[in-house]
Amino acid sequence: MSDSHHDDPPTTRLPRVDAPAAPEQETGRIGEPVPPASEGRQPTGPTLLEQMGGVPGIVASTIPVVVFVLVNVLAELRIALYAALAAGVAVLIWRLVRRDPIQPAISGLIGVGICALVANQTGEARGFYLPGLLYSAFLGLVALVSMIVRWPLAGVIWHSINGHGTEWRQDSRLVRAYGWATGVWAATFLAKVIVQGGLYLANSETWLGVARLAMGYPLTAVAIVATVLIVRRAERSATT
Per residue in 162-206, pLDDT tens? Predict the structure, then answer.
């Protein structure tokens, strides 16, 4: 008994052609198309707040001042100056390791260096606070001048932080609101000059350091809240 073999008919295989991928699209993490950066929005550079390292960067830049105030109460002036400078260097190294923006750390280190130089030259701890007093007086004067020329400082800073332009100056209600907000900041700087300046003249170094800390973030926070409330109310009225 013999086996019979049946040959299968030959088949023709067509080459596989894959659909070309759209060159203008990229695949995301799970294969979803990612639209080009030019669609829907224009690329923008970092805002002023981002360049400053955000809120953590601003806080970190004031650590050397806090260290000086605390160490100056417990030890002599020279040790306090060394501690403040070491704190500034430590903050800079810390931000370098974390690959965070180093601009606020460098600014803080330069600032504490200037304060330490003044204190070392005068031989008095209160000299450490003199540059800050002069800086507050300067900012208060700038705020008042900006209100007079109708370029209120609060509006300029607010829109710089948020990466906006100067269109807000076309709305008189916004200009007026930013003027009131700038007045709040001018009063804040004036209060610092009056209180801390009085303690400086009285040579009350310990209380001057306490006032420097107490009138730092708390007073600044009050001015920020007032600015936000004033500006948001003006923006709501501008859209109605």
Answer: 667 778 888 888 889 999 999 999 999 999 999 999 999 999 888
Q: In this structure, are residues 14 and 6 in contact, taking their beta carbons and an 8 Å threshold? A: no
Over 70: is that where the pLDDT of 39 sits? no
First to last CA, the chain: 100
State the greatest distance between any 2 C-alpha atoms of the chain, in Å, as a whole number: 126
Q: How far are the Cα atoms of 25, 27, 40 from residue 36, in angstroms, in the given order?
A: 7, 11, 9
pTM for the complete prediction? 0.69
Q: Which residue has the tokens 């280190």?
A: 109
DSSP class of residue 157 equals: H
The three-class DSSP label of residue 52 is coil
- As a whole number of angstroms, the distance between CA 136 and CA 216 comes to 11
Q: Which two tokens stand for residue 44?
A: 């923008």
Q: Dihedral sign, CA of 116, 62, 64, 113?
A: negative
Could you tell me whether strands 26-27 and 33-34 are parallel, antiparallel, or unpaired per DSSP bridges? antiparallel
